[in-house]
Amino acid sequence: MFKKAIELKSHQRLSGADRKKLKRTVKDRFPAASDSDIDSLLPPKAEITVAKFQNRVHVYSVEAAFPVFFDIDGRGNEIFPTVYALWKVPDLMPSFLLKGGEVSRYVIGGADLMFPGISVPAEGLPSFSAGEPWAVKVPGNPAPIAVSYFLKFNAFELPKLESVEGHYVPNAGFLEDVVFEDPASSSCQTSDSRDDATDSSHNQPSETNGKEVEDSVGAAEEHPILDSASVSQIEGKNDTAEGITSGVADLKVTDTTTADEMVVEDQQPLSIEDVDMLLDKCLLQALHTTVKDKDLPMPGSTLWSNHVLPCRPSGVTLDIKKSSHKKLSKWLLAKSSTGLITAKEDKHKKEAVLFAVNRGHPDYSSFKPEKRKIEKSEQTTEHSQGESRSDNKMLEVAEIYKPSVHVNPIFTAVGAGTGMLYSASDAIAVVYKYIENENLVKLTNKSIVVLDAILCDALFKGAIKKGSTYPTEIHKKDLGSTFINRMQAHHIVTRGGESVVRKGGLKTIQIVTERRQGNKKVTKLSGMETFLIDADALASELQKKFACSTSVAELPGKKGHEVLVQGGVIDDLAKHLIERYGIPKRYIEVLDKTKK
């Protein structure tokens, strides 16, 4: 199922209703499983996530780390346990043994089986039907190495199966599956001998000697045990497969490791104070490691799912509802009131938005981030993305600010240069340093800053209507954005070794589709020069990509050019700019005038 790495389409947490639905589906699919078996695989208090892939497969994991089930069609009709799940609950589904170890090296690598490769006991196999899931094991070890299902045949054909060619047993999941490439996904331990296998039903002596291997290979030639196409696909992995095969007999499932231990379910629940401390730690870890100034402003939901949650300790469930804040927006606004971040609530979307990070804040400066290992998959993804953009070089965009006459006294007071360019976080750090030097934090309320004459002029001189009274204090959550708005906006764009600094905010790329001459559509693109993209070169590239005519014209009364593309390619064009040129999505505006 997962011989080759495939692109992840989405990754999300299951809701309570979806969790119950998944458990019902698993119970219906595997009636032999008890409630305790299902709870050990899908713990009630653990976070269950689903990863949806481009090939329609859904993978369900515990705590976003341990894959336990995968759904082939994404509709719940063909759901299978992973090999990892079968290590936890070996009796979840019926199993059969391979005839010999020679076959297992291919099965581990993902090859499909033909039925003659299965060892049929003297009493015969129990009745089954086409499509029924079975586990694959090797003689002498209870740990399954693959998950499979019978493609076709009926129970009355069993006496004939060993001598009939062409009965196909597809390999749905296997030991070298890319789902299990993360070492953290394995709870299996190795032992020094095959005798350590814990299942007494598999303690029968193995009689796979050299002669029997030759016999099994000969039988494979006469009655194919393995699908030849599958074998050819994994021959390049034989070296790895041989190493794993030699250790498969030594595998055992530890009786002491349970799913409850993985999610720390048996531990005492965290108190509200502990959850608050954990939230703060995860936020600081995220601000130090993954949250970049160029990514701001950032919706609170994105900050939570993509940055805060990945920073939680392994096996710990982080639930904002169990904190004193109860809601994500209230928590972010509370952190904004301390001056650590600048966040405001979007009244339309009813969501808190992160605008800036105060990297000069004492909490930020005193925090020591933990070093975390980068996942191989992330490195591969970044490498492949870098290769796809190698011709155009990586793009870096940053919004920067220059002190204006309003805020120059603040910079001068702390010894910072007034002719330099600052990021938002660096500029906010300057004003907080001034506040610290002048002891302007209100003693009775640490979230309030008392305004002296210099700071009041820097923030409000010329902005207050005549006749209005100047404020005497300001809340910390409003200080950062107010101070930034009093500076001169600039932006810097870097592509490869070329950097350009311009005054003003960063202008977006405009993509517009409209109708001309009846039902004919054209797509217009402008603003690409902001991101150091040559209009003529882009027009030539789009002509080849979309197999259509393109033209370049100067914009009337403006600096810059407009690229005209024949056809309604508004979405494809935006996607091309993001993937090939690395332009952030927030800097692309699209308008489809053809929609009524």
Automatic annotation (TrEMBL):
TM regions (residue ranges): none
UniProt xrefs under CDD domains: eIF2D_C (cd11608), eIF2D_N (cd11610), PUA_eIF2d-like (cd21156)
GO molecular-function term, one example from the UniProt record: translation initiation factor activity
Biological-process GO terms, alphabetical: formation of translation preinitiation complex
PANTHER family referenced in this protein's UniProt entry, alphabetically: EUKARYOTIC TRANSLATION INITIATION FACTOR 2D (PTHR12217)
InterPro entries reported in the protein's UniProt record: EIF2D, eIF2D_N, eIF2D_SUI1, Pre-PUA, PUA_eIF2d-like, SUI1, SUI1_dom_sf, SWIB_eIF2D
Protein name: Eukaryotic translation initiation factor 2D
Region spans: Disordered: 185-217, 364-393
Organism in which the protein naturally occurs: Morus notabilis
Biased composition (Basic and acidic residues): 368-393
